[in-house]
Amino acid sequence: MTATVKRSSRRRPTGTLAAPIRRHPFQWTPYILLFPAVALVILFAGYPLVRSIYFAFNNIQPLRRTMSWAGFTNFIGIFTDPSYTPFGPLLGRTGIWMIGIVGLQFLLGLGLALLINTRFPLRGVYRGLVMVPWATPSVLVALMWKWILDPNYGVLNRWLQGLGIIHQPIAFLSGNSSALPTVMMLDVWQGVPLFAVMILAALQSVSNDLKEAAAVDGCGRLSTFFNVVLPAIAPTLLITAVLRLIWTANYIDLLWILTGGGPGKSSTTLALQSYLTTYKATNFGHGAAYAVVQACCLAVFVVVYLRLTRNQGEQR
Predict the structure, then answer these.
(1) Total domain count for the chain?
(2) pLDDT attached to residue 1
(3) Which of 75, 85, 102 has its CA nearest to residue 267?
(4) What are the residues facing 67 on neighbouring strands?
(5) How far apart are CA 271 and CA 67, in angstroms?
(6) What digits encode the pLDDT tens for the residues 294-303?
(7) Are 179 and 266 in contact (CB under 8 A)?
């Protein structure tokens, strides 16, 4: 009997009993730390968004302080009402504004990043100076360039005339065909440093071992850049480009200060039209409808941005 008990005790495997599960108490600390940021986002982004959507479906009379439900009347009006700016040309100018600016900023920023990534004297000083246009407030940039481009006393026209390139001053900001391209060039000048810094950070994260391996395999500098460096920095390029497209679509500072959307409507984008309709024409319903339509168009870029950032996070 005793031997049987001993034999059975030897055969019993050890460690088969499941260890008791320790239940950690709910941690409030992360939510408490996140609450101020979440509250600010809800206050300054969430509430205006919901309020704009609500305004878009109402007929608002700010002087009479009345509001009545309008349904989709405001949306139909911005597409069909002849008293408003035709929506097709307005959307086309917005597309030219976005793609033109971001495309040039991408190319120039890539070239600038490759330049300041090389070794040369006072490289740190030049890297700091590169950020000056981006760090300068937009209002100050607009006023500075408005003085430079003035046809009467602007220094640019004086220099061009002194060099014999032009014979009479050019009204860069007053011509139907020159106003929008001029402001686009100014926005490109101000936004190139962002691309340069983002691409520079990505370039410095590329492993030197990969470059050396490519060189050993017989790849030249150009081949190494296109086959090794460019694929490595592609996620950063895509994320920066998509984010910059969203910012550029909503950017109206330079347009409003330099041209006001004119002459006529030649430099009016969708975001600026929403602002003008709301605050100059005091038509809050139609202005909110413009904003909602633009938000729906930009939602595509937001989804692309979120997918890119998620994929990059999973790869890490």
Answers:
(1) 1
(2) 43
(3) 85
(4) 60
(5) 24
(6) 999 888 888 8
(7) yes
Q: What CATH number does residue 146 fall under? A: 1.10.3720.10
HSE on the CB side for 8, CA within 13 Å? 5
Whether 74 is in a domain gets the answer: no
List the structure tokens of 46.
Answer: 């969430």
Please, how many CA atoms are within 13 Å of residue 159, restricted to the half-sphere of its CB?
Answer: 6
DSSP assignment of 46-99: IHHHHHHHHHHTEEEETTTTEEEE-TTHHHHHHHH-TTSPPHHHHHHHHHHHHH
Which residues of the chain have a pLDDT value below 70? Answer: 1-26, 311-316
pLDDT of residue 129: 87
Residue numbers of the domain that contains 117: 85-315
In a domain, 34, yes or no: no
- Report the b/e string of 301-316 with b at 16+ CB within 10 A: beebbeebeeeeeeee
pLDDT in tens, 108-165: 999 999 998 888 888 788 888 888 899 899 999 999 999 999 988 889 989 988 888 8
Q: How far apart are CA 136 and CA 33, in angstroms?
A: 32
Q: How many CB atoms lie within 10 A of CB 199?
A: 23
- Confirm if 96 and 183 have CB atoms less than 8 A apart: no
Q: CA nearest 210: which of 197, 223, 195?
A: 223
Over its C-alpha atoms, the chain yields an Rg (Å, rounded) of 29
Token pair for residue 44? 């300054």
Nearest CA to 134 among 39, 35, 55, 200? 200
Entry pTM: 0.82
Between strands 58-61 and 66-69, the pairing is antiparallel
Q: Output the pLDDT for position 13.
A: 52
CA distance 271 to 153: 31
Q: What is the DSSP letter of 68?
A: E
Q: Is residue 271 part of a domain?
A: yes
Closest to 259 measured CA to CA, from 178, 195, 161? 178
- Per DSSP, the three-state class of 62 is coil
Q: Is residue 301 situated within a structural domain?
A: yes
